[in-house]
Design goal:
The complex is a heterodimer of chains A (120) and B (888). Chain A is an alpha+beta fold and 120 residues long. Chain A is built from four helices and three strands. Chain A has a three-stranded antiparallel sheet with strand order 1-3-2. Chain B folds into four domains: 52 residues, no CATH class; 197 residues, no CATH class; 309 residues, no CATH class; 202 residues, no CATH class. In chain B, strands 15, 16, 17, 18, 19, 20, 21 and 22 form an eight-stranded mixed sheet that branches. A six-stranded mixed beta barrel of chain B has the order 3-4-9-6-8-7. In chain B, a hairpin with a 5-residue loop joins β3 and β4. In chain B, α12 packs antiparallel against α17 and α17 packs across α25. The relative contact order of chain B is 0.10. Classes of the chains: A alpha+beta (120), B alpha+beta (888). At the A-B interface, α2, α3 and β3 of A face α1 and α3 of B.
Amino acid sequence: MSTKEQRERIELLQGTLDLLILRTLLLGPTHGHAIAKAIQFNSDEVLQVEQGSLYPALHRLIKRGWISAEEGTSENNRRAKFYRLTVKGRRQLAVETSKWDKLAAAIAQILRPTEQEGES
Amino acid sequence: MTRRDRMMKDLDQDIREHIAIETQDNIDRGMSPEEARYAAVRKFGNVTRVQEDTRDVWTFVWLEQLGQDIRYALRMLRKAPGFTAVAVLTIALGIGATTAIFSLVDATLLHPLPYPHPEQLVRVVDDLPGVGAQDVGMSVPEWHDLQRSGIFEYVSLAVYGPVNLTGSSQPTRAHYSGVAPNYFALLGVKPQLGRTFDPEDQTPGFTLEVLISDGLWKRSFAANPGILGKSLRLDDDLYTVIGVMPAGYHDPGRTSEQRNTEVWAAVGFAVPGRTPPLRNRRRTGATAIARIKPGLTIAAAQSQLDALVASLQKEFPEDYPLQSAWTVRLVPLKETVVGNARQSLILLLGAVGLLLLIGCVNVANLLLARASARGREMAVRQALGAARKRLISQLLTEGLLLSLVGGLAGLAILFCTRGFLVRLVPDSLPRLNDISINWAVLLFALGASLVAGAIFGLAPALHAGRVDLTLALKQEGRGSTGSREQGRTRRALVVTEFALSLVLMIAAGLLLRSFWDLLNVSLGFNPQNVMAVRTWLPEPNDPKTDMYGTPAQEAPFLRELLRRGRTLPGVEEIALGNRASIPLNHDPTQSPLVLEGREIQSKQPPLVETSSVTPDYFHLLGATLQRGRLFGEMDNETAPPVAVINEAFARTYWPSSDPLGEHLKLSPEDSAWTTVVGVIADARTESLVESSVPQVYLSLYQAPSQGASKELVIFLRGRLDPAATPVQLREQVQAVNPELPVFGAQTLNDALSASLSERRFSMEMVGLFALTALLLAGLGIYGVISYIVSERTHEIGIRLALGAQSRNILRMVLRQGLGLAIAGAAVGFVCALIVSHLMAGLLYGVRPTDPVTFAGVALLLIGVALLASYIPARRAIRVDPLVALRHE
C-alpha cells in the first residue's frame, strides 16, 4: 500500500527537483548536502526536500549529461563529491525554467481567472 | 567494474559524507552526538530505497527483465521436455522447409544474374508479329547497327551447341558457345586464369582461341595451371586455351545446357572472302544480349531503339516488308533466364509459407493448452503483484525462445541435409548462382522464426491477463481448465489449421491431377523399348576439310552406321535422325518455310519445326501415316528431295487443299523444291503439353546435318541393355570413324520423364508440404477434442450414470470434431478457389475448380478429422461413471 503513495510523491517531485538542483548548481559546483541545504534555505524553508531523494535525481542528471561529478573537499575538510553544471545542463535549465514559468502562469490563470493581469 | 558499480560506490561514500555533515551540523546546534546522528539519518530517509532508486537510474530495466524472462522460459521448457520437443520439431520443420525454399528463390528469382550491374543487362529479341513469328534471331548487319546506335555499351551475339573435344582418351562432347569477342566484357566477368577475348577484336571468322570452364579444366586437364597456351582440338580444329573461367561462372542461357557452357570461342560473325552477311539472313538460334549505357532505363533504351528500327525500315524497305512488321524488343536478361520457373517457385514459396503458418497454429494450440494447465501459476503470480504486462512479456519470451530454438534446429537440419536437398532440384531450374545458405537466407530464417514466435506466442499471452483470479485460485490442485474464451480460441485455431491445410491439399491435388493427365496423355508415338544415343559429326571451320559436308559424302556413312547398328544384340529396329528428331528433349529447331506459289512471304518467312530422319524412323517410333507414303531407301542423295509433314502442318498451310505433291523449301537460298509425299498423324514430340505443332520431316540422306544440327541421333528399338548397348554402339561407330564421340544414351521413357522434371519437382514438394499439413491438422484436432473430452469427463460420467448410450456419447464427441473440420473446410474452400485460379498457369488438363479434387480433398480432410476425434471419443465412452463423478 505505502509503496504506491511513495512512488506518486517521487514522481510529483521528480521534474521539479531536477529543476531546483540545476538552479542551485548555477551558483557554482557544490556537494550533495550543500545542495539540499541551499534548496531549503533559498525557499525560506518552505520546500522540505527529503534529503535522500536528492541522490537518485543527481545520478539521473549525470546520466543525462546535464551535470558532472568530481572529487573535492568540503568546508570541514572532508572528501566529498562536487557536482557541477555542464554547458548542456545550463541550456536545459533555461528550457526548463521557461517551461515552468509557462506552466505556473497557465495554472495561475485557471485558478484565478480574475486576477490574471495582477500576479503571475 | 562497470559504470554502474563505480557510481554506486561513489553513492555510498556520498551518503556517508552527507550524514556526517548533517550530524556535525546537528552537534553544532547543540545536540548530543547520538541524537545528532539519529536526526541526520531520519532526515535523510530510507537509505536502501535511495540506493535502489539510484541503481535503477543506471540499469536498463528491460534488459534485466528480459534476462529474467529468458532464464525462466528456459526453465519452463526444460521442465516439459515432451512439449518442448514437439513444438521445437514442428517449428524446425517449418522454418527449415521455408528457408530451404527461400534459398532456392534467393538464388533464382532474387539474384538470378551473378554479374556486375545486372539491371543494365537485356536480351535483344527480334519479332515479326506480322507473320506471327517471335524471336526470329538477329542478322549480322542488324547487330552492327545496334552496336553503333549509342544506346548500348555492348551488344553481343552467342550461339550455343555441342562440340567434339578430341585429344583425351575418349573423344567427348562439350557444351560450346561461339560468342562475339565483346561477350565477357559485356558481362563484366574476369577469368580465374589467363584473359578473356579482346572486345575490340574485329577478326572475321573464328579466332582460334578458347576459354574453358572451371569444370572442364578440372575434369579433363586435372586443373593444370600450365594449361594456358596449350592446344585443344574442337571438331578437328586446333584452338589455343587463353583462359579459364572462375568456378561457379554460368552463362545467362535459357536451357541448362546453355548455362553449363564449357568452351567459349570468339566468333567474328563474318566469313572472310565471302559476300557480307545479308540483312534478312537471321541467325536463328543466336542469342543477342546487350548492356545498356549507364543511366539509361530499359524503357528509355526501348524508345530510342524503336526510333532506330523505324529509320532502318525506311532505309531498307526490301529487307523489312511492312507486312512482317519487324520490331526489336528489349527483355530484362533476368526474365529470360528465370523464364517460367517463376510461377512454380512462387507457388512453392507460398505452399511452404502455408505449412509454416499451420505449424505456428499448431504450436499456438499447444501453448494455449499449456497456458490453461499453468492458469493457476499465472493466477498466483498475478495475485502476488506481477503486472499483466510482465506476464504477457514472459509468455511472449517463451514463444520467441521456442521459435528461435526451433529455427536454429531447422537451420541445423537444413545445413546437414543441404547436399541431398540440392540434388532434388531439377537441372532445368535456372540457377546461375549456387544455391547456398548465405546471409540473406540466414536473415530470412531469423525473420521467419521471430514472426512465427510472435504469432504463436501471442495467443496464450493475450489470454494471460484475463484470468479470473478468484476462480483460478479456488480450483484445487489441478491447473485451471481454462476459460470458455480460451476454448473458443483453440477451436478457432483448429478451424484455421484445417482451412490452410485444405488450401495446400487442393493445390497439391490439382498439381497431381495435372501431372497424372500429362503422364497419361496420348503421345502419338511409342517410347517403349526405344533408346536414343548421340554422336556428333565434326564441323571444321574450313568447309573443304569437312568429310561429311555434302549428302553424297554423308549418306554412305549413315548407311554403314545403320548396317552395323542392326547387328548389335537385342536390336530389332534402328533409325537415324538429327538432334531435332529426339522427341521431347531438344530446343526448338526451326527453319524458315517457303511455300511454292507463296514466295511473296519469302523475305520474312514463317518458321517451322524441322527434323531430318532415315526411313525407318517413323515405324520405329510408331507414327501413324494418314495420307501418301513415308520415306523409303529410294529417297536418297540422288533422288529429288521429299518431305513428310504432320497434320498440324497440313491444316495450317493447306487448310482446304491436298498437301500431297505440294512444294516447299526450308531455306530461302535453296534452289531445289522439296515435294510433300506424306502426312502423318500429330504426335506430342515437341511438347507434352501441346497436342499439335506443325512439323516437317526431311530425308536425312538428302538433307545432311548442318550447323547446330550436326548432332546425329541413333534410335534403337528392341530388348536393349541400357548399360551394354551404348558401349557396343560406340565400338561400332568408332570402327567407322574413331574420332567420333558417342554420348548421351537415354531411353525415350527417361527423356519423357526428364521433360516433366520441373513439374514433378513442384508436385512432389507441394504434395509433401500438403501431407505434413494434413498430419499437423490431424494432430491439432486430436488435441482439441482430447481437451474437450477431458474437460467434460465429469459431465460424460453423469450422462453415462443416468443411462446415456455410449453410442450417443461417441456421436456427441465426433460431432464436435466434424463441426470443426467442416467449418475449416468451408473457409478453406473459398481460399482454395482463389489460390487455384492464381496457379491456373501451372495446371494441365484440369480446371482450377476441378470438382473431383475439391470434393476428394474435403472428404479426405473430414475423414482425418473423424479419425483424430475418434481416439479421444473412445476414451470418453470408456469413462467409468464412478471415477468421473468422484473427479474434483
